[in-house]
């Protein structure tokens, strides 16, 4: 019986058979642990071979021979350039050979990638991993100082940059090649490296890379403070790719066409588009970045039927799709993650587009992406507030935020996860690692939530202080540090303010120096000049003192309450 049949025709009986505790929640009252209600089965068992790396695993799954290799893997929406699966495989081999022999990229070297989505992105990532090197990716809209910090922190030995972003890497001094040719012929490009070895790439020697070795360092604010390097092993990535293959079995097929505007530097985009979908053999239409009207045009032109998205995109479809007269008849499924989707928006979406399945998921960079998922649309509709059930191989605990004691179904506490996908730790930051992963390997999510009697996971609010703007993580501590560097600012605190369009926006409470006439716009512009656009402070309120605890911690809840009162007063 396939996964889809299991969930659509015999859900109750299947859950009962998979749950040794006689309930549908998967909760074991003796241990306080929630178990996933679904098993992977032999077809999708996670490989136990010790010397398997992510690149070799993905390459082993790519379509082989004949028509399968001729199938298109990626189409660039802007240029209409495409690459077939056969060309993709050969490009990976060629680039890996050029990096290893020509540029002497070796096991353990860190390669920094700074690029928007492109048909070369997967090739670059998999070629880097083929050499045994470690991948680290960055948001192209990051500032020069943010990029310099990540280059230093990760210990990058080589950078690969889109031509338009090269100027941001020059101050770091790290050797850099371009993704594609530019007007400056002096700088080597990935395109040239691939062409130089394409016809007969020299095979790589046997590189002793194991599943326990580091595969990637992705940057996340996690549950505390500023951005940190999340160390992911090959075992982590292979495990999450296996989970994606399982989910595809219950919700996708090789004939599907996906649209990718989720950035591939992000764990969501990297695992989904960079690795996982290649193993399924689908075609993906790539957008450099999200743009609403081109997205609608792409869906219509390429008959896109699967759209991995984020809540602001769902809201935009609800508000504007019919006004611009687009044809979404080809769409069958829309997934959403990276931030909570409100019940109201979900209901409006389903009412407007009843033929489209809408499914929420939840995950973290620290869990290599996904942690929860709804395998069936029926399930998602029945539990519209939930963000899915635990994925196979996942265990969860809900613990009291004060005592740390495990809680039964429908009791709110901090969510903890354990799975083969959980990160190895934060790079060079033992304090943050031990604060996030306990001695038994449980990952503290920093999110307040609960699991109901049906095993559905609900996120109530964030315990951690991160702000989610358009799915991006914004750390208040980072913005506060920038604000406090202003000579006319004595103290500052940053809080999230709910926003219908973007989820949340950063708002700053600022204490001005005596006699200062500093304005809201001046504060906003000061911060904007030093951080990526998504991190900008969007609202400023001046205050006499920042409320703090006896230990000196900012009482953000007091400021959140004050901001709500101010908003109501204005209304």
TrEMBL record:
Gene3D superfamilies named in the record: 3.30.300.30, N-terminal domain of ligase-like (3.40.50.12780)
Residues annotated as domain AMP-binding enzyme C-terminal: 478-553
Molecular function via GO: ATP binding; ligase activity
Organism domain of life: Eukaryota
Family: Belongs to the ATP-dependent AMP-binding enzyme family.
Cross-referenced PANTHER family: 4-COUMARATE--COA LIGASE, LONG-CHAIN-FATTY-ACID--COA LIGASE
UniProt-recorded name of the protein: 4-coumarate--CoA ligase
């Amino acid at each position: 019986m396939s996964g889809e049949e299991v969930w659509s025709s015999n859900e109750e009986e299947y859950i009962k058979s998979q749950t040794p505790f006689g309930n549908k929640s998967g909760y074991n009252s003796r241990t306080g642990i929630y178990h996933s209600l679904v098993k992977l089965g032999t077809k999708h068992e996670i490989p136990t071979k010790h010397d398997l790396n992510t690149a070799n695993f993905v390459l082993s799954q790519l379509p082989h021979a004949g028509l399968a290799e001729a199938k298109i893997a990626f189409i660039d929406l802007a240029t209409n350039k495409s690459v077939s699966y056969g060309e993709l495989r050969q490009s990976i081999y060629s680039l890996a050979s050029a990096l290893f022999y020509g540029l002497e990229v070796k096991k353990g070297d860190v390669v920094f990638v700074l690029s928007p989505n492109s048909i070369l992105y997967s090739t670059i990532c998999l070629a880097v991993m083929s050499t045994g090197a470690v991948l680290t990716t960055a948001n192209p809209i990051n500032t020069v100082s943010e990029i310099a910090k990540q280059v230093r922190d990760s210990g990058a030995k080589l950078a690969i940059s889109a031509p338009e972003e090269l100027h941001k890497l020059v101050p770091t001094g790290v050797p850099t090649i371009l993704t594609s040719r530019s007007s400056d012929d002096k700088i080597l490009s990935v395109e040239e490296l691939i062409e130089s070895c394409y016809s007969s790439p020299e095979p790589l020697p046997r590189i002793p890379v194991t599943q326990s070795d580091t595969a990637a360092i992705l940057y996340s604010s996690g549950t505390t403070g500023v951005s940190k390097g999340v160390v992911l092993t090959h075992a982590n990535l292979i495990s999450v790719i296996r989970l994606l293959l399982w989910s595809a079995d219950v919700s996708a097929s090789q004939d599907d066409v996906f649209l990718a505007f989720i950035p591939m530097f992000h764990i969501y985009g990297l695992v989904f588009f960079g690795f996982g979908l290649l193993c399924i053999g689908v075609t993906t239409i790539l957008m450099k970045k999200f743009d609403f009207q081109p997205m609608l045009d792409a869906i219509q032109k390429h008959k896109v039927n699967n759209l991995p998205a984020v809540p602001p995109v769902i809201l935009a479809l609800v508000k504007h799709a019919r006004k611009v007269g687009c044809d979404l008849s080809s769409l069958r499924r829309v997934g959403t993650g990276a931030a909570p989707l409100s019940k109201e928006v979900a209901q409006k979406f389903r009412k407007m587009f009843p033929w489209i399945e809408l499914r929420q998921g939840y995950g973290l960079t620290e869990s290599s992406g996904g942690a929860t998922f709804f395998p069936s649309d029926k399930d998602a509709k029945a539990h519209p507030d939930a963000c899915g059930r635990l994925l196979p191989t996942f265990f969860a605990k809900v613990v009291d935020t004060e005592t740390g004691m495990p809680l039964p179904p429908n009791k709110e506490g901090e969510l903890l996860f354990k799975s083969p996908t959980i990160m190895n730790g934060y790079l060079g930051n033992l304090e943050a690692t031990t604060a996030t992963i306990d001695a038994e390997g449980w990952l503290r999510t920093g999110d307040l939530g609960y699991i109901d009697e049906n095993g559905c996971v609900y996120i109530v609010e964030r315990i951690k202080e991160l702000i989610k703007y358009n799915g991006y993580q914004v750390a208040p501590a980072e913005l506060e540090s920038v604000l406090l560097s202003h000579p006319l600012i004595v103290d500052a605190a940053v809080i999230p303010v709910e926003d219908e369009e973007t989820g949340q926006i950063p708002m700053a409470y600022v204490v001005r120096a005596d006699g200062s006439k500093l304005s809201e716009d001046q504060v906003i512009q000061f911060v904007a000049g030093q951080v990526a656009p998504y991190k900008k402070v969007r609202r400023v309120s001046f205050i006499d003192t920042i409320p703090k605890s006896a230990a000196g911690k900012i009482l953000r809840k007091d400021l959140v309450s004050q901001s709500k009162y101010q908003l109501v007063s204005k209304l």
